[in-house]
Specification:
Order of helices and strands of chain A: EEEEEEEEEEE
Radius of gyration of chain A: 14 Å
Helix content of chain B: under 10%
Distance between the termini of chain B: 36 Å
Shape of chain B: globular
Largest sheet of chain A: 7 strands, mixed
Largest interface: A-B, 22 and 26 residues
Structural class of chain A: mainly beta
Radius of gyration of chain B: 13 Å
Oligomer: heterodimer
Chain lengths: 124, 108
């Protein structure tokens, strides 16, 4: 069964650091694009970061320079290192698999597998 | 940045109704548009990708259409399990995905 399980959330003080993990089963993380998406309490979905199968990484402006996405191929696990946390980073964090479909030679991506999420609360 | 605007923000409907949700992009995104359903306390679930392709396992009462800047998600006959929040998402400006603000579908 294809599955993603996030762990590592918790209560952290402003300015602190936290590392989220996303363990995959049923497929290989390193051969897929993998994203982190977050949802603040009562708000909509916000894309946070993606790591490509080739290793390139990209970030939303709101987290650039503070968050780092990475993966451990031997553990088939995705990570999100979050530093200099702010109150506005409080959210449920989801990891997701990005799938691509080629239409007329161009690739369109969509998130077809999601974890259940892990909650990060930044508060003093 | 490409902005995605959904309408309405909330909607009340009855079981059996036909419902349409609209998503508008701030610039043309051809067909790079996906739809997700999210129930309270749960992760989003992919419904439609590439504007009109139904994800495997999703009931055929869900359909998507549109191209360029204007898109719609239609539920042909609402079922009790369809009451949820729906999000559109553009993947034209990969990797900088953006989501719409969501449409909450409630029971009338």
């Amino acid at each position: 069964e294809v599955q993603l399980v996030e762990t590592g959330g918790g209560l952290i003080q402003p300015g602190g650091s936290l590392r989220l993990s996303c363990a995959a089963s049923g497929f290989t993380v390193s051969t897929n694009y993998m994203s982190w998406v977050r949802q603040a309490p009562g708000k909509g979905l916000e894309w946070v970061s993606v790591i490509y199968s080739g290793g390139s990484t990209y970030y939303a402006d709101s987290v650039k320079g503070r968050f780092t996405i990475s993966r451990d191929n031997s553990k088939n696990t995705l990570y999100l290192q979050m530093n200099s946390l702010r109150a506005e980073d409080t959210a449920v964090y989801y990891c997701a698999r990005d799938r691509g479909i080629t239409i007329f030679g161009v690739v369109l991506y969509y998130m077809d597998v999601w974890g259940k999420g892990t909650t990060v609360t930044v508060s003093s | 940045d490409i902005q995605m605007t959904q309408s309405p923000s909330s909607l009340s409907a009855s079981v059996g109704d036909r419902v349409t949700i609209t998503c508008r992009a701030s610039q043309s995104i051809t067909n790079y548009l996906n739809w997700y359903q999210q129930k309270p306390g749960k992760a989003p679930k992919l419904l439609i990708y590439a504007a009109s392709s139904l994800q495997s396992g999703v009931p055929s009462r869900f359909s998507g259409s549109g191209s360029g800047t204007d898109f719609t998600l239609t539920i042909s006959s609402l079922q009790p399990e369809d009451f949820a929040t729906y999000y559109c998402q553009q993947s034209y400006s990969t990797p900088m995905y953006t989501f719409g603000q969501g449409t909450k579908l409630e029971i009338k």
